[in-house]
Please model this.
Amino acid sequence: MMLVWLIVIPLVAGMLAWLTARWSTQLPRWISLAAAVLDLVLTLVLWMRSGSAVAAGAATVWFAEVDWTWVPRFGIHFHLGVDGLSLLMLGLTCVLGLMSVLCSWTEIREQVGFFHFNLMWMLAGIAGVFLALDLFLFYFAWELMLIPMYFLIAIWGHERRIYAAIKFLLFTQLSGLLMLIAILALYFMHYQTTGVYTFQYGDLLGAQLTPEAERWIMLGFVLAFAVKLPVVPLHTWLSDAHSEAPTAGSVILAGLLLKTGAYGLLRFVLPLFPHAAHEVTPVALVLAVLGIAYGAVMAFAQTDLKRLVAYTSVSHLGFVLLGIFSWNPFGLQGAVMTMICHGLSTGALFILVGALQERTHTRDMDRMGGLWITVPRFSGAALFFALASLGLPGLGDFVGEFLVLLGAYQLSVGITVVAALGILASTLYALRMVQRVFHGENTQRWQLQDLSPREALIIAPMIAALLWLGLYPQPILNTFAPAMHNLLREANLPAVVWQKR
Amino acid sequence: MTRADCITLLPLILIAGTSMLVMLAIAFTRNHTLAARLTVAGLLAAFMSVLAVTPYVPRHVTALLIMDRYALFYMGVIIASAVTVAVLSYSYFEQQEGHCEELYVLLSIATLGCLVLVASSHLMSSFLGLEILSVSLYAMIAYLKERKQSLEAGIKYLVLGAASSAFLLFGMALIYAELGTMEFSQVAAASAVQSRLALLLPGIVLIITGIGFKLAVVPFHLWTPDVYEGAPAPVTAFIATVSKTAIFALLLRVLHQPGVHQSRTLFAVFAIIAVASMLAGNLLALLQTNVKRILAYSSIAHFGYMLVAFVAGGTMAVEAVTFYLVAYTVTTLGAFGVVTVLSGSSRDADRLDDYQGLFWRRPLMAGIFTVMLLSLAGIPATMGFLAKFYVLAAGASATQWSLILILVTTSTIGLYYYLRILVALYSTSSEGEPSVQPVARVSGFVLAVLTAFLLWFGLYPAPLLDMIQRHAVPSVAEILTPESGKLSLHIGSGGVSLPASGEARR
Model:
């Protein structure tokens, strides 16, 4: 029942925020804040319970489940479940949701109620994606989170917001519909072999598919997830959407929406189509490395701060893809660590860039420089997250990327070498950004306000979290472990693959 | 005609009576409110009678009409939509100059024609129904005779409609000449047994042409945008929903006759029409700047989607099309309802500019329009999504992969022009003068009900699906092909029982 609350609370809060906006512009913010905090608390309670469940050696991987019949005609269930992987993603959702409410506190001045309505409904949709164990429900939530995002970009975005919003929606919608066809194909093929109409994840895991059918169906899923992730040739929506979205939109896009793609690969593609997924491994690895390199090079070439951070996402999510298709515990753990740490560090960078834009009304690096003198605390925070992003040991991102490289090394040394070079490139773009924005001469004579208490309140926990993840990542890995073993079992043990090679 | 026949025909009789009553009332006193109230009351009474006669069906009333659950289901949908149109017309025509009472007479006669269509089991009665409908529509479209566009639309619809009726009639004559019967069941049976009769195929092709005109599927769609644009907004709503629903219901009944499914040529023709409609509808809509024209092209595309399910065949197809029709009707009524409500006395609110920044001026209307557009685009939490899902499921179950891939691609293109309207609705740089006229309370209420309906069944469709599964299959199929009934039962129980699924796997 707690899982339902996780979704219902933001939905209700969104409605309330919209309704109360007519009386006060502050009320929607407080309502959303309360909802985000409440969700975070619920997730922490779940996490604590899950810890004891793992310690007790629970038989099932699902810590909590809700299963209601929804549309009997098609055998559709309202089935939510949470395992280690969903739990971690849920935690990230709540944290970033909270941060995005806080970082919009002064940025959004128009239509505050409708803004928070969209924000809350999007968070509900994302939580639904991470919790759904029925493929129809998953698709439902998958699509539902896009519309609020569209509105966030199209109404509160920057100069080219309409173009960016439409591009974002068309890309994700087309790939989503292809996934729907794949889901339906899986559904009917499962029916043909078993005589049961069901969208349940647990049932479909055992679907008997011909190799050809498996390949086609997997392609439908992979396309949807690859657009979200994004895998390089399908990434063009990302830089536009990120740079035009308001700060909260960018934070959620980079921190959460991209992760839904990675989550989809982990949750659905690997276990449902193990054979076909093994077949495409070489392609996936090459695309992953391509993404790492391409993202880094593009980030280096940007002068727009938001676009720069957007391209670093392409690079980091390349590591996630690499980790996922390494087919071993190191790779998977690294992928999940990178997902979480990238969410925090990039989210924080977007918040800082947004705050900077609020002060200077520009995102152009050429017009900045020497800001360290006028905003020292702000600059220090930015340096910290830039270092986290380039993978400095001791901070969370390093652990993730290191584990990914460890996993990939077992598969292919060449790939690993190129990926490691990507880390080097990330040093270049991150330091260049810090150099050009905060060091040098203050040519424009900026006199800006340093971090406000509210901003410090956002930034400090994220610094703490990244340090914690970098120095003691074991709790995260422990939470993920049962889910990971289950996943590797469903997706054929990697040992089997090894023997083949 | 026995007494039982008369009872089963009660919905038709009541609506015919309503039109007479309104006509007489107009003769005594010209009063817009009275005419509208009488019409709505008569339609509501007819709706009640649909529920009341349910125990007496299925029943053949003469050779012409069959009153079965399928017919009753569609009658319910049609009458409910007609009530909505009547209410919307009231607030719309209240602003217009000149007499507007006769519109309600025409409206009830047109509704009567639709009822005849969905209940007909004979080519002759279907032709009668179609003509009753079309002739009233000619007058309804050109009702605002001060407006040139309205007159042009009326003439266009008249000429093309008459031509399509001629095609239809000629096709029927050929079939009669070949088979000596015009009853659907016998035509279907005969065509299944003796295929390749010289006159039968031309006859069927001519009939498809005629029906295609009325449904506005490509390549018979050329009149649609002009008529949609020229007709008064509530009348456009009627053409787009009630009349098309009735005709599609008829088509569904004919093609559900046993024997028809064996005709591969026929279904190939429909597949081509479906693809052409999806492509042309969605692509041409991209070029429009007029909201009514955009909705016209979008309706062409939507009938293309429906034909995909239709071509897929099987029991699921009938359900899918029925659900799609209901969703489409509710959504389109809502969309045109918003257009109606925003229209002034001099012209309809049909330019994209009229909607610039509507959200900041009238959040409620813009919100309703948003929901309608999202439903047309097939976004979850609306009926439009489930409808599309149903159609895709029907297509996938028949392994029509290429058709559903085209559906998916074209509907993504379609999303773009819905987004264009949405962008206008929410654009912050609003130059458009704030429109002054307040929304009539009844229209607002009707729109709110439609929105609630759309969202409720979008989130919890089980009751409606259940109802469609039980009622909306043409009775002929129930009698002659018991397997179809069994199949649906099997589907119903298979999905629910999870333990059973586990056993099956073991």
